[in-house]
Every structure is written in C-alpha cells, then in structure tokens.
C-alpha cells in the first residue's frame, strides 16, 4: 500500500526495530503508509536493511542507535526520530530483553538489565514521546503472555517486568485520554524470533499449553499493532490483547 495506505501521512517509531517482532512491525506500518523510525542497539546492519525495505515502499525511514540500558538514550532517540520525521503519531515500545533463572539464581546485573530495558526504558521513552505525540496518537507496548500466566520455573523476574506493563498501560490510557491518545498492550506468546526460535529445546514444553499447537510468527504481532495504530483502533484504549495461540486460555 505504501503512501496510499490507511496510515499515510502518519509517523511512527518502533523501538528495537532491527529484528524479530520490531522489524516485522516496522515493515507492516510502512506497508500501511506510515513513515517509520526504528531504534537499535548492536544490530546496525539489520537496522539498515529494515530502513532500505521501508524506503523501497515509498515511505521515509531512519534508524537511531539507542542502547536501552543507557540512561537517556531512549528519550534522546524519541526526540531525534520525531525531528527527523516531522512529529510523531505512533510509538511502539517493543525493545526488550530476557534473562532467565530462578529467583535464587538471578544476579543483580540481570535484575538491573531487565528493569532498565523492559520497564524503565518503556516509561522514560513514553514520557519523552508525550511531548511530541500529536493528539489522537497511539502508544502501543509489546509485553508477554507470561505477565499473566507463568507455567515453568526460571521466569519469575522476566514475568515481573512484563506484568509491570499492565498497570502502566492502563494508567497511561487515563493520562492520555483527554488528548484522545490511546495506550494499549500487546502480549505475544511463543513467537518464532531470534529470542525464542520455534526449533529451540523448550518449544514442545511451551506449546503444551497452546490451543492451536504451533508457534506464532512476528507478522501476527505486527498485524495486531497495525490494527491498533490505524483508524479501526481509535476507540480501543487501556486494553490488553494477548496474541498467543491460546496458551493462556
């Protein structure tokens, strides 16, 4: 669709947009017509490939390096992206990390990293975006179905970081409602990405709770984000959309 899609004339920023769900989301928003900025940490070549794909669609795109563990980096990236694109209509808080281990095994370094990337960067990046988001805009955060159901040991701290996004999203919806800016949370389940490939040794265990019995793919999550970002999502706010093949059913 490119420049003639339902998001034509809109601008979006996808954090962690160089690979996986973030890259799929950036490409999907571009296909819907949005100009799209992405952030990345170390995957510069992958980020450049996403930008090239978006440019080929006929939309503007830029990649900004923003290590989410560095204080101030995400906020600076939000403002740089908004300046490059001429404002911001959609923020997708996608960047995240996973550190596994029982509570007794998780180190202080693990805990700090998870809180900094999965919680603090979401809050501070959103705070920066509030000043540049146009009225009627969207804030969409990518969480995890583990926020609401933990079926295996070793996931407590990661699940904690994702459950924090539930309260944040619901409160944010109230804060931004007067400006008709929506805030929603998308919770993937087992999704075939670098972080959790469908062929990994725990795949069978993960799918044992799935109603559909197979891994999702990044395009499934991107499509949900696209719906929330578009005209059809205008009256959806404070919502949690779990896209997990029925794992949490």
Automatic annotation (TrEMBL):
It comes from Actinokineospora diospyrosa. The keyword Oxidoreductase applies. Belongs to the short-chain dehydrogenases/reductases (SDR) family. It holds the Pfam family adh_short_C2. It comes from the Bacteria. Keywords: Oxidoreductase. This is NAD(P)-dependent dehydrogenase, short-chain alcohol dehydrogenase family. InterPro entries: NAD(P)-bd_dom_sf (IPR036291), Sc_DH/Rdtase_CS (IPR020904), SDR_fam (IPR002347).
């Amino acid at each position: 669709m490119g420049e003639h899609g339902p998001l034509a004339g809109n601008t979006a920023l996808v954090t962690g947009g160089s690979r996986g769900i973030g890259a799929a989301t950036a490409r999907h928003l571009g296909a819907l017509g949005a100009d799209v900025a992405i952030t990345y940490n170390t995957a510069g070549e992958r980020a450049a490939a996403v930008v090239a794909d978006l440019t080929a669609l006929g939309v503007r795109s830029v990649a900004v390096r923003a290590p989410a563990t560095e204080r101030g980096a995400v906020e600076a990236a939000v403002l740089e992206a908004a300046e490059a694109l001429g404002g911001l209509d959609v923020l997708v808080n996608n960047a995240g990390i996973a550190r596994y281990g029982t509570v007794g095994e998780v180190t202080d370094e693990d805990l700090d990293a998870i809180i900094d990337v999965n919680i603090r960067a979401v809050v501070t990046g959103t705070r920066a975006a509030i000043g540049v988001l146009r009225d009627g805009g969207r804030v969409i955060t990518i969480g995890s179905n583990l926020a609401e159901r933990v079926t295996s040991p070793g996931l407590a701290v990661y699940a904690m970081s994702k459950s924090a996004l539930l309260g944040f999203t619901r409160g944010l919806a109230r804060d931004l409602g007067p400006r008709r800016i929506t805030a929603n949370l998308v919770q993937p389940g087992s999704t075939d990405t670098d972080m959790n490939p469908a062929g990994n040794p725990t795949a069978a265990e993960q799918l044992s709770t799935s109603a559909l019995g197979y891994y999702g793919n990044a395009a499934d999550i991107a499509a949900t984000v696209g719906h929330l970002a578009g005209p059809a999502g205008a009256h959806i706010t404070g919502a949690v959309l779990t896209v997990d093949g029925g794992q949490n059913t």
